[in-house]
Amino acid sequence: MQSYKLNNGVEGFEFGTPIDTGALLEKGTPEKIDFKEKMAVGKITTLEFELLPKDRIYGLGEHLGSMNRRGKRLRSYCRDEANHTEDKNELYGAHNFFVHVKEQEQTGFFIDFPGEVVYDTGFQDDKRFTIEIHGKDFRLIKIPGNSIEEIVSRFLQVAGKAYIPPKWAFGYFQSRWGYKDVAEINGVYERFQQEDLPLDGIYLDLDYMEDFKNFTVSRQRFPKFKEFVAKLKRDGVYLVPIIDAGVKIEPDYDIYEEGLAGNHFCLNAQGNPYVAAVWPGKVHFPDFLQSKTRKWFGEKYQFLTDLGIEGVWNDMNEPAIFYDEKNLEEAVDLASDCRGKNLNVHKFFELKDTFANLLNDEDYHQRFYHRIQGKKHPHREVHNLYGDYMTRAANYGLQKHLNKRFLLISRASSIGMHRYGGIWTGDNASWWSHLEENIRMMPSINMCGFYYIGADTGGFGGQCSGELLTRWLQFSAFTPLLRNHSALDTRPQEPYAFSQEVLENTRSILKGRYRLIPYLYSTYMKAVEEYQLFFKPLAFDYGEGYQEIEDQLFIGEEIMLAPIHKKNQSQRLVDLPEKMARITLTDQETEMSLAPAGPQKLSYDLDHLRFFLRENKMIPLGKSAKNVSKLSMKKLEVLAYITNQGEHVFYDDDGISLGNKEKNLMKIRIKSREDFYDIEVKNPHKELETIDFKIINDNGRIQKISYRVKT
Amino acid sequence: MQSYKLNNGVEGFEFGTPIDTGALLEKGTPEKIDFKEKMAVGKITTLEFELLPKDRIYGLGEHLGSMNRRGKRLRSYCRDEANHTEDKNELYGAHNFFVHVKEQEQTGFFIDFPGEVVYDTGFQDDKRFTIEIHGKDFRLIKIPGNSIEEIVSRFLQVAGKAYIPPKWAFGYFQSRWGYKDVAEINGVYERFQQEDLPLDGIYLDLDYMEDFKNFTVSRQRFPKFKEFVAKLKRDGVYLVPIIDAGVKIEPDYDIYEEGLAGNHFCLNAQGNPYVAAVWPGKVHFPDFLQSKTRKWFGEKYQFLTDLGIEGVWNDMNEPAIFYDEKNLEEAVDLASDCRGKNLNVHKFFELKDTFANLLNDEDYHQRFYHRIQGKKHPHREVHNLYGDYMTRAANYGLQKHLNKRFLLISRASSIGMHRYGGIWTGDNASWWSHLEENIRMMPSINMCGFYYIGADTGGFGGQCSGELLTRWLQFSAFTPLLRNHSALDTRPQEPYAFSQEVLENTRSILKGRYRLIPYLYSTYMKAVEEYQLFFKPLAFDYGEGYQEIEDQLFIGEEIMLAPIHKKNQSQRLVDLPEKMARITLTDQETEMSLAPAGPQKLSYDLDHLRFFLRENKMIPLGKSAKNVSKLSMKKLEVLAYITNQGEHVFYDDDGISLGNKEKNLMKIRIKSREDFYDIEVKNPHKELETIDFKIINDNGRIQKISYRVKT
Prior knowledge:
Two copies of one chain form a homodimer. By secondary structure, chain A is an alpha+beta fold. Helix content of chain A is 23%, strand content 28%. In chain A, strand 15 (201-204), helix 3 and strand 16 form a beta-alpha-beta unit.
């Protein structure tokens, strides 16, 4: 074992000869440190911690279930999991960072390993937390700290600064698998204009391609694509096409031919390109673990940037595999064997399950290989890097050809990828429980380095109701990535696809989102820059009595959300850890009142955003606009709850340049002085002319002050 | 259309020539009544109601989701649904009773129809409630009332008195699919004794049979079965075997031969017995819609009663069908076609889905026929009666051969069957959300006539944790049917299968249950006799502000439950519609304190039962015992919250005889008079010697009074 000292007391331990995953920025300085954890290294290495009754565990990123991960069995092994029921042990991401919180202390751990890791956080034995690392070559990072937040912040520092999207990526995006041609996409765009719904972009699912081939655009269904992209972009609306991991096997298809010629594809045991089947039928998988392949594939995104594209989503990159030839043949053989027989129950279920299990059978992962610095590695050993490295490739190409910020999200991910792109939480469903999962999952993912995150609002699979879409938007109005996406053959899910009421309510909510964008963008940028969380569980700030609350959370330092996530509910119970101001926000209006500490009922109508503002905090609001490009900073409204004094740092920049060009940090200070307030605005935003302050004090009295900014 | 007047203003409307489903007790007296609803009769008859913003809908029995059924699409079509995700439109039961609640009035409806009925309660259009009845021959019952409860009670009166199980059926039952032989069952029994866990019985899943053949017992695995049954029964422990709907096709198997000879099986289009495959491989389905078949099959239960059995569960009686020969052959043909081909995505999913959809394909329902009074009916038309009528058959046979009460539950059901047996809610999973579903589902099912109900505690499918089992028991300690059941190959789920803490906590909870049995049994019997609900939503008693609460509910008139149904939570928010007494119950102890009206935090440890007692109400508690046969009535503890006066009627009988033999109605009156209480006990239970009263007043002062009953 080698040990290393990193910044801030962070310790690194290297066992065996780990593959360099690139998860962290640096390895640290060699220094002899005792390794005190209980560990048994072997083919499967086990690490074991004692669990005391009040211990809690936070982190582990993209998993279903409670924020406190205790009592579960969770597996880090990226999986195309289409059915997010609560018993699922893995989703698309592999995020090996967690904080073990004890009554008197807390410690963070990161397991830097590209293969399978299984966490039993007290499921089998409620007194033991065991971790199985499927290998003997890995790094272990141990992070001390005086608080959970301090540990997280230290981890984020060693993991490196998160991906920063353009400001337009904070707008609302419409999407649907099934928008079949340019006329339909244009129809969506026009309908948004007609209905006065804000829109920053439309995602293109795989139907825009020619036969599901990456870096092609269907000539028949998307003629004059470049002109169409330009037309929408002139109005501030971006098209965001999908790219899948698999490359269609088709002679004369340039990507296929180049991949073969350049030796870019993953190989089978015989050394030939491995064949699997996904959307296009049979494909090869680019070996993104080869740096030359990342460069080659990354360059291909130029095909899109040349068309005017500035945003991409990388999909199916766990990688998802529908079947491979071997398994399909075995399944067909089994079916043939069953012909005409009286199958007993065991034989019948074997038959049925054999076909069901073709989809994403993990056996495939032992049939293909990567080359890392010339050495062959079975896919299984490095599985969790695949989507991550595809996204690094995309980031490389997009940055090179755009030389500005771009929208880039990926379905599969591991820690390290957070520096290159964001993630959406995959194929959820139009289930109320998935709205609740969305709420709970955001802080866990954020802790693992990802900031540009969000779920498919309204749910991808299944039939969404107008009520569910509305309630979901009331939450995702606060997530950096805000996308309404749905699957083929499901009920249409655009804000205008339901009743007039739903249209009016969602319009009001979306306009509320656009009023929040200056604040959300500022909070995002500050959080990334300062290694702080954008989403934070109540448990990180409060102790006993509040640490179990998991359907309320903080945005930045200012806002507490308590969304409705159940059907047919116009109110819910909320537990306030301290007195806060209750804010109601619509397109034009804001209302403020005080809410006492403790349990209380919160009414929450369908037509507005309602949230809480913490004491001595303030948030700036802009004016809604049809998209981010049209947001104005001339006039801000600042809502503040001031009992003593508060200071707010408001970040802005040009929203598109690399390197935070035209960065501005405006400081707003409010000090309560008996009957009046001292207000100071330092370093005002260059466009700003007026701030309308609305300040509530401890007695609930609201004072409105219009402040003319001298420039 | 014919119209009829029933009791209490209930109206009946008969359209076409309905099949007599036997759902209700009587048809009513012919009387001309206008039919005012909006209806279009046809191949599919549609009935339409306007929905106003505050309208709510309660009832429809066994469905997932909110108690207020508004905004859903729910289908009455019994289905073997193994995956209870919230998008599922149907489960095992078809319960066509609901109450439409408007701001100023409410009306109940029952659709007496044996085929498919689809309810769109404002999902497609939030202003319209549409019902599709798949036929033109049906009865419609309309029930007026001044409250939801009054409507429900009137419906229960026309539907007839519910099934009454023996008192021992209120005990705790252990079950597991996978207990393979008599040694294992005996091991479970002995372990319960060793661990001092109460137990009233063990369910036997299909492994007790010989090759899944109904009315057989495996000689190899269950030798000397009769002696074993007797041995356990001497100790007050009952064995409850399963019976499935399908009869194995096997020459010389008596049930098969008799069924053929007696013309008892459902026929295919050619008039031969229809062949489907279920657990035993190929089977025929008894045509339970023939009265001669019900009699024949009912008599077969004598095989079990002769062995000493007094309880049965009827399973797979939707009926579940794994495959039939036609579909299996088509699937195999499709697989053969795919051999060696490069399947594109559409072809691949067609192949995979074809095999998945073999299970319970509804096409099968058009391939077999019933004979009702000599007339042939496709199964589809009368599908929802199948499990119902199987259970009527079992009830007939068991009653005839036992001549006392027996335990009888069924998986499939429709209204009418409630007079013949209870239901468990089928193949749920070890998901926290299914505990919540259990809470929400109980009142909806109870409204439809079923009282002996409960879910598989701990969850049938998936991996249960000790915490989930414990929390689930804290709720199902109050459900009449209390069974812990789990599936083959899941984690063992007996109370002793986890840690020592889980064993101690569940023991304490189960003993608490046994202390509650006198109250629960009394409440059950009174509710059935008086056509009142055992489980009641808060919305039935309280208006605005409380009517949306769906994770708290009432038991009888006395108790309000507010169970914890989330992981890693030691407390939850509760909303009290009025001031109540908070009760904590363990094996030996009871604690009482006052809880104010309104939202508040409730701590709920894992080792006790905690619930609320309403004002001027009381509950009697017994002493726990190892099973119901050993419960003593010599001494009762009465917990009361009295601010003025309260009266409690306590029901008891011998718990086993038909016709409520030795029925006793004891009346306990407590009247608060300044500093003391007047206590009166009328018609005391014959075994009763002492009542220990613990009375809390409005100031939280507790008075203990030991009351010696004069007999």
